[in-house]
Amino acid sequence: MIKVIGFIPRRPDISRSDFRHYYETQHVLLALSRIRSFTKYVRNHVAPDELQEPGFDCLPEWWFTSPEVAADIATWVASPAGEVLHRDEANFMDRPRMSSCPVSDDLLFGPQRQVELWLIPKRGLAITRAPTADPAAFAAEITRFGAELIRRNEGALTRVSRDMPLDPLQTSYPLDALFWIWPATPGGVIEVPEHGAAICVCTELGFEAIETPPAALSV
């Protein structure tokens, strides 16, 4: 399977809660009425009580069976037929700042991810690479950082995964790595390790994930 992750900021005149409400009650239904190729569809919304403004409000995950299927959907979205989605996005998203990127999804700790049909609280670490760090140095630092994150939080985590762009030199997506953390206790505090010079910014955020039931992806 291939996973594509989005970077979705809300329109400046819309609150985070209104953005989320429209996304879940309007846009998701519209998208699913047009696209039948998802194998997994998750919206990772920045938590309502999160005080930071990280520059985005949702990091959706679109999973497909193959790169070819993902490419076919991207072609459709960019075609005149896809304008129906673009018009609806303009109702609540800041479209000029939106982007997406195919990523590797690596399980670092815990059981394999299953379907999660309820509202799932998670922590996320959104990371950008230092401009002076080459991809190899960044990858090495990310590996060390992830191992230290797991070591320092032994017993406090149930799962940790990491998303990284398939193209380490991509410039269209504003994040270079994402750690997803499932705390053993909702609301539990996570100790974030210090990072090395290859990492420019590491922002810890609260998320609430909403997954569409698999049966609804083919209705």
Which keywords apply here?
4 helices; 32% strand; alpha+beta; 219 residues; 26% helix; 8 strands; eight-stranded antiparallel beta barrel; Alpha-Beta Plaits
Task: Describe the structure in your own words.
- With 219 residues, this protein is α+β, with helices and mostly antiparallel strands.
- It has a single domain, classed as Alpha-Beta Plaits (2-Layer Sandwich).
- It contains 4 helices and 8 strands; from the N terminus they run E-H-E-E-H-H-E-E-H-E-E-E.
- Strands 1-3-2-8-5-7-6-4 form an 8-stranded antiparallel β-barrel.
- The chain is globular, with a radius of gyration of 17 Å.
- It starts with a strand and ends in an 8-residue tail after the last strand.
- 27% of the residues are buried.
